Amino acid sequence: MRIPKVMRTKQVAQIIAVVAVLCIFFTQQVGDHSSSTVVPVSASQTGPSDNGGGYPPIHPTAGEQALKSWPGPGDTDALLAKIATLEQTVAAQEAGDTAALKAKIATLEQKVAAQETQPATNLQGGEKVIGRNLPGANSQAALKHVLANGWESSDVHVTQDQHHRNDICLYQGNCNLHGENILGRCFCLPGFTGPECEEATDKPLCTNNDDKCFYTEEAGVFAISLSRWHMAQEAELAMWNGNAGKKAGKAGTGDRIDEHLKDFSNYVSVGADGNNLGNFIEVGTGPWTQSLTMMKARGFSVNKYVIMEPGAINYAANTPGTVYRDGQIDGFDGKTVVINAGGEHLDLFYEAFDTVMIVNVLEHVLNGASILRNLYNALKPGGLLIFQDRWWDQEGAPGSERAEMDMDVLFHPIRMKKVVFEQFLSGFEVIYDRRDEEVASFHTGGRNYEGTYFIGRKKMTQC
Length: 463
Known about the structure:
The protein has two domains: 9-31 and 58-117; 175-458, Rossmann fold (3-Layer(aba) Sandwich). Helices cover 34% and strands 14% of the residues. The chain is α/β, with parallel strands linked by helices. The strands form four sheets. A seven-stranded mixed β-sheet has the order 8-7-6-9-10-13-12. It has a two-stranded antiparallel sheet with strand order 1-2. It is elongated and about 110 Å long. The chain starts with 8 loop residues before the first helix and ends in a 5-residue tail after the last strand.
């Protein structure tokens, strides 16, 4: 919609100024010739008078004569010249203002047109968000937006507090805030190296439209920027919300639940049927969780059933079949706690859980290394870890084995190498560990994954 043309304050002021100048000029001229006020003047300024004094006589005849002789030719020319100059100034100002206004209108119209044709706008600014505020949007729209616009920033922020609580024999530092500490070993961000990431090195150029400047040869991509993570999250939300109709009424289905059940061997290594898993948490549940299928298949009970998922509010509102949609999980009323946050905030809990579960999550997060440390700290010594993920050594640097940005890269920005997982899992006694070629789901549907399905108990100490 065009902005209505209105009289600007600046233009009004200019017109008033012109009128004022004319009034003052007229008043002065008339006053000089026709005013009845007696004005003292010197003898040299007066012409002949009847009384010979210093004040000129003022009478109607003289006034009429003065009016008849005003203005003179010179006065008229000067006045008309001033008026012409002022008119030119006003016209020029109006033309400039009009051009500026037209330019602003054109810019606004371009923005409106772009907004109407581009379903994905500022994903961090809260205007419209893929999967949440854009009815009908999907993950393809998210990919198109990223390819066209990238993201706002590639600045990565590591965790301030990186210690491992009671494991005093481990390095407890924060890697000089240039990396993440996992069980005493620093994994450095791009641009830093050394045992405590104390040495600066060359860093790839950040373009804000690929993941190259997040990648290290040692660890792969273990942390990304917040705006890059938002892109991945909104694409994920768009996918689940777009598939909501297919899942309606099928609580606890989807997200390869049957595959995970099979590759964990029906969770037999978790414990005997009917065991109580104590204070239980699943991190990164999506709408349906992996744990509820396990609970029902094995008859497990819990003291607390904690769901930690950064998209929990959205799923509960928009995805039919979400198992915690009313804030409770069927069969666990009064024991369910839903936390709308990612595993990066699990550091709020210290040795609070008897059982921690995380399945196929780390490739979707903001900082995979910090989450691994948080999982370790949140679990009680002797507590049970149920863990699945893949490592990405065979992928190499971004763009070397696949496109720099495609749907898989958009959804899975975190691509950590095996060395990171091995460092984390070294803190646990192995109960179950199925890897690589042994995992059926890693080699079905055209997949060629490497990784682990792991169940273990946290060591009582790392010393």
